[in-house]
Write a structure and sequence with these properties.
69% of the residues lie in helices and 6% in strands. It has 21 helices and seven strands. Helix 7 packs across helix 11, helix 12 packs parallel to helix 15 and helix 17 runs parallel beside helix 20. The longest helix has 32 residues. The termini are far apart.
């Protein structure tokens, strides 16, 4: 019984916890923290049940690869002679989405522990945090596009307030910028979603228009111009190409990719530490997941045709953001730009359309989620003690805070891709896949993975330079009144598990890859086989 509704429990347990909080008096601050912690522990346990019950040998991609599926009719609206619109509560996981669910469970649990020192409007903070958690889990398990979009949009509101109320001095500006950028991206996705619903039916000959992503992947379910009553060309270009490009823009903003990335550094700098952890750890991954689940899966022919440009966007993000990170004086902003650079590898890996590249892209999303959460927590630890994040204001911290400095050392080495850490495995797979896609395929250029390697060198440069300036040499801080005790128990509780995971998945990557391998193989085969077939069938329908 639990397994039949496991994903629903994962989605709604945080929302139930938030509802309980509404009835707790506002002065019971400790109660809100305990309720949130219990809810996240339940989420983690449910995720472990999900991981243990998942069939890793199930091959293929699409509806046949989905597990723990739950499908219920939600809305069935008759629209006259055109047919009816069907919206379903349809949730399921495959080998990729289950890793994103695991990442969410880890990061949101760490985020609650990191939120333990929140003192302002504690009730409101944790209620919004629970709503945000429900939205993130919902995005990663939704198979109905309307349901995905609902959760995707729903997370805007809690994030807006979590940054705008509990953030730094420029919190209103940062929260508004985050909201506007993400909303614009959402509108592009909304246009595509409406167009897809109008043109896709449940089965050939049916009059039921669906939001089912699995149905949208089958070109035989698409209505031709004769059935639609209007042209499927716009400005001489197929509307499917326009739809793919609109999705690229929408999900690129969320990822984020250059040049639509500028909201991220501001949001990170002004957000409280726990929200920076959640933002970098899981929210950015929804952009990469959207490429995989929706853009590439529904429009494989455009994914192949525009793969070179997607890879180019990834390469530009890797280099540009790394150079900007090197110029930062604020430690938190440096890590924010490093996130933009690392997300460029996700685009490069997906664009290669190789098993190695796509596996590396998925591994990078998980690895970066763990490592970035660790780095933002470490920045928060220093900021809690000093109220300062300027790199130039610290030197020789290793002599006063040895355990903290060791954790920073691990975080930096993991982020720059040192062998033995999860970041190395992710970037190695992406680059191998990109070389394969350039040499044996016809999508990428050979120089792209080479430039990607330069990005790794730049990453090592800014991380090692920061490490040397802040942690080695003679101890010095700008303000002698700053108290610099080493890590306390709560901080150890947040940092140690993330350190262990960064090392564990670097040494034993198959712990994760065994879950995603069959799905990734099916995904790549699907894209390569369906890209030409889709073009032929859709042209025939027109």
């Amino acid at each position: 019984m639990l397994l039949d509704h496991l994903l629903s429990w994962l989605i709604f347990v945080p929302l139930i916890a938030g509802g309980i909080m509404l009835f707790v008096p506002s002065d019971k601050e400790q109660a809100f923290k305990v309720i949130a912690l219990v809810a996240m522990l339940v989420e983690f346990v449910l995720t472990m049940v999900l991981m243990c019950s998942f069939d890793r040998s199930l091959a293929g991609y699409g509806a046949s690869s989905l597990q723990f599926a739950q499908k219920l009719e939600w809305i069935n609206l008759n629209i006259g002679s055109f047919g009816s619109i069907l919206i379903q509560y349809y949730v399921a996981v495959d080998g990729v989405s289950i890793l994103m669910v695991l990442l969410t469970a880890i990061v949101m649990l760490v985020g609650v522990i990191s939120s333990w020192n929140i003192k302002k409007s504690v009730k409101g903070y944790f209620v919004l945090y629970m709503v945000l958690t429900t939205s993130v889990f919902g995005c990663f398990v939704s198979i109905d596009m309307f349901l995905f979009y609902l959760f995707f949009e729903f997370m805007l509101l809690p994030m807006y307030f979590l940054i705008g109320i509990w953030g730094g001095k420029r919190r209103e500006y940062a929260s508004m910028k985050f909201f506007i950028y993400t909303l614009v991206g959402s509108l592009f996705i909304l246009m595509v979603m409406i167009g897809l619903n109008l043109s896709v039916v449940e089965a050939p000959g049916s009059s039921v228009h669906t939001f089912d992503i699995m149905k949208m992947m089958d070109p035989s379910n698409y209505l031709g111009e004769a059935m639609l009553g209007f042209s499927t060309q716009w400005m001489g270009v197929s509307v499917r190409v326009w739809a793919f490009l609109f999705l690229m823009i929408g999900f690129a903003i969320k990822l984020p990719a250059v040049p639509v990335h500028t909201w991220l550094p501001d949001a990170h700098v002004e957000a409280p530490t726990p929200i920076s952890v959640v933002l970098a750890g899981v929210l950015l991954k929804i952009g990469g997941y959207g490429f995989y689940r929706i853009a590439y899966s529904i429009f494989p022919e455009s994914a192949v045709a525009y793969g070179w440009y997607i890879a180019l966007a990834g390469v530009i993000a890797i280099i540009y953001a790394a150079l900007v990170a090197m110029a930062q004086s604020d430690l938190k902003k440096l890590i924010a730009y490093s996130s933009v650079s690392h997300m460029g590898f996700v685009l490069l890996g997906l664009a290669s359309l190789t098993i190695e590249g796509a596996s590396g892209a998925m591994f990078q999303m998980f690895s970066h989620g763990v490592i970035s959460a660790l780095l933002f927590i470490l920045v928060g630890v220093l900021y809690d003690r000093t109220g300062n994040r300027e790199i130039a204001n610290f030197s020789g911290l290793a002599t006063k805070m040895p355990y903290y400095s060791a954790a920073v050392l691990v975080g930096f080495f993991a982020a720059l891709g040192l062998p033995g850490f999860s970041g190395f495995i992710a970037e190695f797979l992406v680059l191998i896949g990109a070389f394969d896609g350039a040499v044996n395929g016809s999508i990428l250029s050979t120089w792209m993975p080479i430039v990607g390697l330069v990005g790794l060198v730049l990453g090592a440069a800014y991380f090692l330079w920061t490490l040397q300036r802040m942690f080695f040499g003679k101890f010095w801080v700008k303000d002698e009144s700053w108290q610099l005790p080493d890590l306390n128990r709560r901080e150890w509780l947040m940092i140690l598990p993330l350190v262990v995971l960064a090392v564990l998945f670097g040494i034993f990557p198959n712990i994760l890859l065994d879950y995603s391998n069959e799905t990734i193989i099916g995904f790549v085969d699907y894209i390569q086989s369906q890209s030409e077939a889709n073009t032929i069938l859709i042209q025939a329908g027109n």
